[in-house]
Amino acid sequence: MTEQQGDAPDALKAPNDAMMQWWSQQWLQGVTPMARMQLAWMESLAEAMQFEAQCLHALAESGQRLSVCMSSETPANPQDIQECYQQLMHHVTRTHMQRLEKVAELSEDFRNRIWEEI
Fold first, then answer.
1. What's 1's DSSP letter?
2. What is the mean pLDDT of residues 51-68?
């Protein structure tokens, strides 16, 4: 009798392994698309954060240039200050427009990534 009991677990092992293998394949097929969609979302988020960091860097540079224009040792005439300010505003405006263009592209890229994963 003890021999028959020893054979029972071995007899059940093969069907259990096959069932576990089938179940793990089904589970992975269901999880993989969601993981890919999450990866696409995270990549888009990382790009958006990079664009925002570039914009903030440009704004910081403009603020630094403005402080240099305003804090010169010799009093500057109004035309020089106005010219410096106009250049800085042009730079900030151009940076903001580039930011808006990238945001529009990012939305389209995100849609394309999601569509590819579906």
1. -
2. 88
Measured between alpha carbons, how far is 84 from 18 in angstroms, rounded to an integer?
A: 75
Are the CB atoms for 48 and 113 separated by under 8 Å?
no
From CA 75, how far away is CA 16, in angstroms rounded? 87
| Domain range list for the chain | 39-118
* pTM attached to this predicted model: 0.59
DSSP H helical segments within 71-118, as ranges? 78-117
Evaluate if residue 4 carries a pLDDT over 60.
no
**How far apart are the C-alpha atoms of 67 and 80, rounded to whole Å?**
13
Phi and psi of 74, rounded to 5°?
Answer: -90, 140
DSSP three-state, residue 98 = helix
> In the structure encoding, which two tokens stand for residue 33, read together?
């698309």
Which is nearest to 98 in space by CA: 57, 43, 46?
57
Confidence of residue 93 (pLDDT cuts 50, 70, 90): very high
